[in-house]
């Protein structure tokens, strides 16, 4: 019954080597989000897609990009990972943009940078 | 600016005892408040939310939360804690200044329930 699926669960990359994390959803939700979470801290929103409209948070580094080729899939691309980018990356969805909508999270991808 | 604060990094409680995880908020306008739980190496799971109406909100796994407007609080409660409730709990608010897309999370409170 997995609804928001993230692959892989664990990803190891090398310093400066591009990496892509993937997320898929079976909920047919309009909004998809990417959060970064470090060491059990509060998740930090990187960006979101409302349908095909991309919205970047002001403090998200240029090193982070995203693609949403269709409703079901969303990708997080880190062009040149640094040691500080090691974190848990969480994908989430919501049905629409209404403020009372809850978020559905995937299990996350734990990224290590060597 | 919208924000939530969780004043306790950690809460310890014995199994069978009531538990409270505290949250205070600061918002302009009506607050849309949420609680999420995170088990080790997992994503966050929705527990409950307050949008409007009854101040006592019931959610998943026997949890409830009380919205108190005068104290700007939204504390999470459970009458009888289980060892399996041990997890990281996040209070959150939707940031209406960004059209509601952005959910702002508190720093989290780690709950330990001892058998």
- Helical percentage of chain A: under 10%
Helix and strand succession of chain A?
EEEEEEEEEEE
> Radius of gyration of chain A, rounded?
13 Å
Distance between the termini of chain A: 34 Å
Uncertain runs of chain B are none
Distance separating the two termini of chain B: 41 Å
The structural class of chain A is mainly beta
Number of helices of chain A: 0
Note the beta-strand portion of chain B.
Answer: over 45%
Taking all Cα atoms into account, the compactness measure Rg of chain B is 14 Å
The low-confidence parts of chain A are none
Shape designation of chain A: globular
**What is the β-strand count of chain B?**
12
Protein structure class of chain B? mainly beta
User: Could you give the order of the helices and strands of chain B?
Assistant: EEEEEEEEEEEE
Q: In terms of topology, how is this protein built?
A:
The complex is a heterodimer of chains A (114) and B (115).
Chain A: E1 4-7, E2 10-13, E3 19-25, E4 31-37, E5 44-50, E6 53-56, E7 64-67, E8 73-78, E9 87-94, E10 104-105, E11 109-113
Parallel strand pairs in A: 2-11
Antiparallel strand pairs in A: 1-3, 3-8, 4-5, 4-9, 5-6, 7-8, 9-10, 9-11
Chain B: E1 3-5, E2 10-14, E3 19-21, E4 24-26, E5 33-38, E6 44-50, E7 56-58, E8 64-68, E9 73-78, E10 87-95, E11 102-105, E12 109-114
Parallel strand pairs in B: 2-12
Antiparallel strand pairs in B: 1-4, 3-9, 5-6, 5-10, 7-8, 8-9, 10-11, 10-12
